[in-house]
Amino acid sequence: MKSSIHPQNYRPVVFSDEQAGFAFLTQSTAQTTETIKWEDDNEYPLVKVHISSASHPFFTGEEKIIDTEGRVDRFKARQAAAELVKQLWQTKQRKLTLKKQLKLILQNQTKRLNNLTN
């Protein structure tokens, strides 16, 4: 290994998973401006994380979606819009107006979603 590429400034840092209410103290080079008073009454730098072993589905055995940036919602919206366009192109009822076609498709989508959630 190269000798000059690894950091040397390790220090005690608390990592906190706010979703699960879990925190642990370890050595790290992570930079942060926040601090926390730890169980030993010392103050340590605090790094907040979205997922840890206490909240990750692999370790908990639960499927839980933590979506802090709305990516899942945006993906589902794009997927639904693509399905609508696909159904509009494939529909054989060309005599219906576009408004009626959209209404029928939205009704079908609502039925599908209700079946999935029940």
Q: What's the total number of strands? A: 4
Structural class: alpha+beta
Q: Kindly state the mean pLDDT as a whole number?
A: 80
Count of alpha and pi helical runs: 3
Secondary-structure element order, N to C: EEEEHHH
How would the blueprint of this fold be written?
Elements: E1 11-17, E2 22-28, E3 35-37, E4 43-49, H1 57-60, H2 71-90, H3 98-117
Parallel strand pairs: 1-4
Antiparallel strand pairs: 1-2, 3-4
Helix pairs in contact: 2-3
Would you mind describing this structure in some detail?
There is one protein chain. By secondary structure, the chain is α+β, with helices and mostly antiparallel strands. It is elongated. The model has no long low-confidence stretch (mean pLDDT 80). It has 3 helices and 4 strands. Strands 2-1-4-3 form a 4-stranded mixed beta sheet, with no helix packed on it. Helix 2 packs across helix 3 (98-117). It has helices at residues 57-60, 71-90, 98-117; strands at 11-17, 22-28, 35-37, 43-49. Strand 3 (35-37) and strand 4 (43-49) form a beta hairpin.
Q: What would the keywords be for this entry?
A:
37% helix; alpha+beta; single chain; 118 residues; 4 strands
Give me a quick take on this structure:
By secondary structure, this protein is α+β, with helices and mostly antiparallel strands. 37% of the residues lie in helices and 20% in strands. It has helices at 57-60, 71-90, 98-117, and strands at 11-17, 22-28, 35-37, 43-49.
